Amino acid sequence: MLCFHTATAKKIQNKQKKYALIVPDVLVDVSDTSGEGDMYYDKSAGIILMISDRKSNFKSVNEYMDCSNKQLEDNLKSMYSDPTLKLISCSRSLYYPKETVVLHFSVGVLSNGFTTCVVYFIHHKGNDLQFSFTYNKENAKPSLLYIDDIMKTLELK
Length: 157
What we know:
single chain; 157 residues; mainly beta; Protein Transport Mog1p, Chain A; seven-stranded antiparallel β-sheet
């Protein structure tokens, strides 16, 4: 059962990439001019969701996202061009653990008070999917519950 702060929900799905998930209706589609994925924003919860995908050059998520890599935080700092980035956790998801690695980290480069990211890296049927959530760390507890409520509805088909 979903614990969203709204009674209604909608399904986001991509038949080509073979996934679907259920999100609250208040998570609205935002026009993303970068062309790098889909962006959704819930103003009342203060959460942004970006979904991106690409054909994979890898055989598994472990080939490009390895929690045991001692240089992971440094690599992320370089990738995001943010020396203040702090890795909070790197783990397997409870949902599709063989295909999914979850990174949780704080950043200092995002605007509008967004300081924390949770990124689900998923390798599925030859594709690399990313579900990236950003929120303000002061709202960590409700934001993490909100994110979990969404990700537990993920269907890889």
